[in-house]
Amino acid sequence: MVRTSERPKKTDPSKVEVGEIDTRAPFQSVKDAVSLFGEVAFSGEKPTIKKASPLSAEKVLVKETRLHLAEKELDKLKGRLQNAENTKAEALVELEKAKRTVEQLSEKLKVLTESKEAAIQATEAANKQVKLLEEAHSGNLAVANGFHKEDSDSGREEYANVLLELNAA
């Protein structure tokens, strides 16, 4: 008879006897395997901590050159900013001068307009007076010529003065 050894049935898969084959499912991803075994399992060497490699003289020189160029550019930009601020300040001063000039000219224009209106009213009044005098003169020649002549001459002089003022304004 053949003797068969009965093996006990396993209930706990973590208890693996020597010589048995693991029939569990393989890893789902490489990431799972790396997290379980770590890098050491793949490389066969001890993990080494990578130190930052010391910068070579060329790299330091390149970085210093870039820094120097950036500082020069910054200085140029600061100079341009200062120049722009100065120009702005000068423009604001000129703007204020122009505003004051506009205000002064507006005030002068207002005064001249009022003067012109007054001169126009005076001219109209003088014209009315001249018409009245001419009507009186033409209708009443029998009255003394001296009185009418003086009124007429003074009216004409006043009229001429008002016209001169009006033209000057």
Write the layout of secondary structure elements.
Elements (H helix, E strand, L loop, with lengths): L29 H8 L1 H5 L13 H83 L5 H24 L1
Give a description of the structure.
This protein has 169 residues and is an all-alpha fold. The chain has a domain at 56-168. Helices cover 71% and strands 0% of the residues. It has four helices and no strands. The protein has helices at residues 30-37, 39-43, 57-139, 145-168. Helix 3 (57-139) runs antiparallel to helix 4 (145-168). The radius of gyration is 57 Å and the shape is rod-shaped. It starts with 29 loop residues before the first helix and ends with a helix. 1% of the residues are buried. Residues 1-6 have low confidence and may be disordered. Residues 67-136 form a coiled coil. It comes from Opuntia streptacantha (Prickly pear cactus). Belongs to the WEB family.
Overall helicity: over 70%
Beta-strand residue fraction:
under 5%
The coarse overall form would be: rod-shaped
Radius of gyration: 57 Å
Order of helices and strands: HHHH
Major sheet attributes: none
Helix/strand/pairing class, anyone?
mainly alpha
Q: How many DSSP E strands?
A: 0
Low-pLDDT sequence parts:
1-6
**N→C terminal distance:** 148 Å
Instruction: Give the rounded overall mean pLDDT.
Output: 78
Q: Supply the number of helical segments.
A: 4
